[in-house]
């Protein structure tokens, strides 16, 4: 909007909003990243190793490191080109979360129910924070930084993040912090943008960000998910701008056709300045939680379609790896990143050949 000296001064932001802005402006998470680095964000601190308890959740808790090892050892990305994020501190988390919610994480019992690993309730809370919540907070810092990198470079990938079941006031489904809501709120203030598209293609409905952006016209949500599995959140469902509900057993061809149609509709309805792509791999055939039957090649094609959708319209895109709990997930994600690079949709800087 054009401004002139005769325009009235803008109305002051409400108290809560101005505190949020102050927190965002004083955050240290928006690091200056040199151009010698690739916009691929990862820290060894992402990986969870928790007294063997991680084995009790159907979750491959070293997925994030494994993805990076495939990329670096096979010569697609130099280790030194990875971007290490800072941990999201309490002031950063308060940009979205309530103090009451963060305090609730001081109960190991509460954290145990969020990550769905009951024995965690018996572990002293300081250990729970160090071994479980700290890795999550590093990943949250990575998601927030990824939005800045996407605007600077046109694309970015946070090798972790995508905790789409957590909202400002409630965690669940292995998601303790609302990194998607946080990264979008930071982008509004620090990147001066006012329209964000969330493309959520994890197998589960993304009820966390849906509740956080209920009736917020700046955010358009396209969510394609299996309607027959967790979380069955009918309140959050009404805040999805464009939903594609799948049934258990949906196969690759039908999935990709539905995605093509959805992206076409989306293109005609909303013009975003940033795309947050939640790229869960729990759509893979054999995933015990996602219950869809998408082939590894189908996942690679899916990611290519989303990146092409972004590139064709010249919209910055950031990808989060989100759910995907099988041992094979890391290989598929690495293959997908390699494919994006081979198709010139991203530039890792040192491809072989
Ligand atoms: Zn999921």
Describe the 3D structure:
This protein has 353 residues and is an alpha/beta fold. The protein has a single domain, classed as Histone deacetylase domain (Arginase, Chain A), CATH 3.40.800.20. It has helices at 15-25, 63-73, 90-93, 99-104, 108-115, 125-153, 179-190, 207-212, 234-237, 252-269, 296-312, 329-342, and strands spanning 40-41, 155-158, 196-200, 219-226, 242-246, 274-278, 317-320. A 7-stranded parallel sheet has the order 1-2-7-6-3-4-5, with helices on both faces. Strand 6, helix 11 (296-312) and strand 7 form a beta-alpha-beta unit. Helix 2 packs across helix 12 (329-342), helix 6 (125-153) crosses helix 7 and helix 11 (296-312) runs parallel beside helix 12 (329-342). The chain is globular and about 45 Å long. 46% of the residues are buried. Zinc ion (ZN) binds at residues 202-204, 280, 282, 323.
Topology of this structure?
Elements: H1 15-25, E1 40-41, H2 63-73, H3 90-93, H4 99-104, H5 108-115, H6 125-153, E2 155-158, H7 179-190, E3 196-200, H8 207-212, E4 219-226, H9 234-237, E5 242-246, H10 252-269, E6 274-278, H11 296-312, E7 317-320, H12 329-342
Parallel strand pairs: 1-2, 2-7, 3-4, 3-6, 4-5, 6-7
Helix pairs in contact: 2-12, 6-7, 10-11, 11-12
The structure holds zinc ion (ZN).
Subcellular location: Nucleus
GO molecular function, one term: histone deacetylase activity, hydrolytic mechanism
Protein name: histone deacetylase
